[in-house]
Amino acid sequence: MKRIYISFMVMLLFAACNSDNQGKQIGNRTKTALRPFSDTAKSDTFRIVLNGNKPKDMELVFTIHKAGGAVIYTQTLKATALLDNYKETLDLDKEKQQIQFMQEELNLFFEDENFIEPAVTETEEADENTPDKSFFAELKKSSLNGFKYRLGKESKVYIAWSEKEKKVKVYYQCCQ
């Protein structure tokens, strides 16, 4: 009888310790998309994960995996940086609003408009927001696709695969 009582107490204690964390879980914390990126014939896996339970600890971790599974890109976006960019235009005073904002960022990350096919068209020209003009020219010839994501309300990053350098690079960075 004593063993049953101790087992019950241990399970109760375990449940109590875990209930706080489980109660704070928010929605679906992972999104994936399959799209051609590093190869026009094979799909790469785009994945975004929302880590953390409190806005000060939250981050979006974005990765791209080649068709064979190798990670070719990783970017971590801190919630505090994203929230700071929007605090003047959105009501983000309460923790609940901040968590909801981060969940929306996760949900919107892989919208169709963020996948750019091709990354650069034949008629596009590099401008002052193009960090690497030779990479821009490479993309014109390769017809590989691009992807864009935002760092804040007025900052977007455009990335694509460089076949020449065998890595993901920024080909454009600008405002909305």
What this model shows, in words?
- The structure is a single chain.
- The chain is of the alpha+beta class and 176 residues long.
- It has one domain (2-174).
- It has helices at residues 2-23, 79-86, 95-108, 133-142; strands spanning 30-36, 43-51, 59-65, 71-78, 115-116, 146-152, 155-162, 167-174.
- The chain has a 4-stranded antiparallel sheet with strand order 1-2-3-4.
- A hairpin with a 4-residue loop joins β7 and β8.
Order of helices and strands: HEEEEHHEHEEE
Percent helix: 25-40%
- The structural class is alpha+beta
Quaternary structure type = single chain
Q: Strand content of the residues, in percent?
A: 25-35%
Strand segment tally? 8
**Shape, please?**
globular
Distance between the termini: 67 Å
Q: Average the pLDDT over all residues and give the rounded result.
A: 86
Unreliable runs, pLDDT <50, ≥5 residues? 2-25
What topology, given as strand order, has the largest sheet?
1-2-3-4
Tally of alpha and pi helices: 4
Counting structural domains, the number is 1
- Our Rg estimate from Cα atoms comes to 21 Å
Largest sheet: 4 strands, antiparallel
